[in-house]
Design brief:
Strand content: under 5%
Radius of gyration: 24 Å
Structural class: mainly alpha
Number of helices: 7
Distance between the termini: 72 Å
Amino acid sequence: MSFAFLLLAVMLVVAIAIYTVLRVSSRLAHSRARVVYDLAEAVEFVSERLPETLTAKLSYDDVEALLLWHVDHLRVSGAATYGRGDLAAAAAEGNDEGIEVVTNEDDIVDYVLAKASSSGRDIEALDVVVVLDLERAYLEQIGALGPPVVG
């Protein structure tokens, strides 16, 4: 009798485990994957696609600095976070994680140019625009950009 009870208990535990795994797998299969911006990957992607005139002018360090300044601008404007710390601070302030933030491209270029100037780098507006366009291609490739906002 105790063997039958033990066998029934084991079968019940296995059935619950199988149900739980299938339920979680199904939910994950229907949810969007989380996209993570990898700076090293972005620098490599952008650097490999720079026009020859800019590859002679901009180093990997320059490209990395431009991308970091762009991410910094996105963070300051509320369009991006550096992870859980920013999300926790936003939640404490009552900000909703789903709010869309629209940034002006001219403001981004001005912000990045100001950072470049203050760091003593010889970077022009056209350099910034080309790097940011290539970064946009990287973001599209990894699935970080949604459809354009209409209106």
